[in-house]
Amino acid sequence: MAETSDNVKTATDAKKAPAPQVPRQSGADGQPVMRLLMDIPLTLRVELGSTRIPVRDLLRYQEGEVIELDQDENDALDVYVNDKLIARGEPVVVDGKVGLRLTEVVSAAERLENINEGGPK
After folding, report:
1. Of 42, 54, 35, 24, nearest to 86 (Cα)?
2. DSSP for 12-50?
3. What does the alpha-carbon distance between residue 40 and residue 23 come to, in Å, rounded to a whole number?
4. Are the C-beta atoms of residues 112 and 15 closer than 8 Å to each other?
5. Would you put residue 110 in left (φ > 0), alpha (ψ -120 to 50) or beta?
6. Could you tell me if 84 and 121 are in contact, meaning their C-beta atoms sit under 8 angstroms apart?
């Protein structure tokens, strides 16, 4: 596995880690606040790579052309939720569908911190 930064744990570590402590504050109806948030939809995005191109090249593209990206073939793909990095993984195919096996996961504590602070993208 590639090197990990201080704020990223391997998927194995994430399975062993206890769930983060969530404040037990209650909403107006007496339900814990986190329970109220569990059904809010989030946008999950997996980034394959990127590149910068001039408009002239973009306008010349035709079907079948290959666009070279900055990602190396063995690099893990970044997983973002609402534009916040939460994990990295490798592509897999399961029953004919594309999926992602998580290989590194940002620690739960840091994910909560990023939510509270509007953390870095």
Report:
1. 42
2. HHHHHSPPPP----B-TTSSBHHHHHTT----EEEE---
3. 18
4. no
5. alpha
6. yes
**Could you read off the pLDDT of 6-17 as tens digits, one per residue?**
444 444 454 555
4 CB contacts (<8 Å, ≥6 apart)? 10, 104
Tokens of 14: 């994430």
Tokens 């999926």 locate to 99
Give the single-character DSSP code of 87: E
Q: Show the tokens assigned to 61.
A: 């593209």
Chain segment 47-77, per-residue pLDDT in tens: 999 999 999 999 999 999 999 999 898 899 9
Is there a contact between 82 and 43 (Cβ–Cβ < 8 Å)? yes
Q: How far is CA 37 from the centre of its chain?
A: 19
